[in-house]
Design goal:
The protein is built from 13 helices and 8 strands. The protein has about 300 residues and is of the alpha/beta class. The protein has a single domain, classed as TIM Barrel (Alpha-Beta Barrel). The relative contact order is 0.12.
């Protein structure tokens, strides 16, 4: 006997061949892989050849899959999720469990798409500062969730941790300039490295991180001239700029910012790629193309 709920449910969506469609936009068919896997070796090759590296944040399976299909080279599960997903005012309160959860979501999204993008996950505040061993345990959590590389903030004391992780087979991305986890110590969201002493310190920290084995280095809100100088200094480490001008090896933006859905004031270094785009994938593709051809960022409009 058929229940009334079944009778009233309506037709099950199907394609032209009569196959029923999976719910919620999922797709059980294997992806048509058109891109080669982006690895740390490929990032090094791109840097050496001068091919700009397009990096974007993502925090869930669907956006990760769309970004991957649009040709994004690296997807970063940033602790910025604390602000854009969880509504926090800083990244300080993000837990390792939250980072593990979102990293796993993104990894599963990549597996449903091209599966080509390199997945970088942030080590959250308080989960690597205590010791090398604490950093190792935290990195293992994120790598087992699907990350290909972990990112940590700061220079000086972090070089020992970077070397410790790299020697044990964990690729590392550094982060200098404006480091959001320590924004209180920096006096707010301010440009870093304007004065000569500060610029020399950032440059020295960048050099030390490369020597320690960092494969990539995010430079956030530092003067364009300083970022370009650091990039020229590097022999193997790929610099990724955000508010650091167009002289770096690549660029990164927070996905929500570049889609124009920031809940606060839009930073100067952001461009809204949804303007003129038909859909999110088109916006992602436009971002990748603009990074690759060097038209974004423009130093006059997006840097200091």
């Amino acid at each position: 006997m058929t229940s009334s709920s079944a009778r009233n449910a309506g037709p099950v969506p199907s394609d032209a061949a009569g196959q029923t469609s999976a719910p919620y936009g999922s797709n059980d068919s294997p992806p048509d892989r058109k891109r080669k896997q982006v690895t740390t070796a490929r990032i090094a090759d791109m840097r050496a050849r001068g091919e700009r590296i397009a990096v974007l944040t993502a925090y869930d399976a669907t956006f990760a899959a769309v970004a991957d299909a649009a040709g994004v080279d690296c997807i970063m599960v940033g602790d910025s999720l604390g602000m854009v997903c969880q509504g926090m005012t800083t990244t300080v309160g993000v837990s390792l469990e939250a980072m593990r959860y979102h990293t796993k979501c993104v990894a599963q999204g990549l597996a449903r798409s091209q599966g080509a993008a390199l997945l970088i996950a942030d080590l959250p505040f308080g989960w690597y500062q205590q010791s090398r061993e604490q950093a190792m345990a935290s990195a293992i959590e994120l790598m087992q969730a699907g990350a290909h590389m972990v990112k940590l903030e700061g220079g000086g004391w972090t070089t020992e941790i970077v070397e410790f992780l790299v020697q044990r087979g964990i690729p590392v991305c550094g982060h200098l300039g404006l480091t959001p986890q320590t924004v209180s110590a920096l006096g707010g969201y301010r440009i870093q490295g304007r004065e000569k002493d500060a610029a020399d310190r950032v440059q020295a920290d960048a050099r030390a991180l490369e020597v320690a084995g960092a494969s990539m280095l995010v430079l956030e809100m530092v003067p364009a001239q300083l970022a370009a100088s650091i990039t020229r200094d590097m022999t193997s480490c790929a610099t990724i700029g955000i508010g650091a001008g167009n002289g770096t090896a690549g660029q990164v933006l927070v996905m929500h910012d570049m889609l124009g859905i920031n809940l606060g004031r839009m930073p100067r270094f952001v461009r809204d790629f949804m303007k003129g785009a038909d859909d999110v994938q088109s916006a992602f593709s436009a971002y990748v193309a603009s990074v690759k051809n060097g038209s974004f960022p423009h130093n006059e409009h997006h840097a200091w």
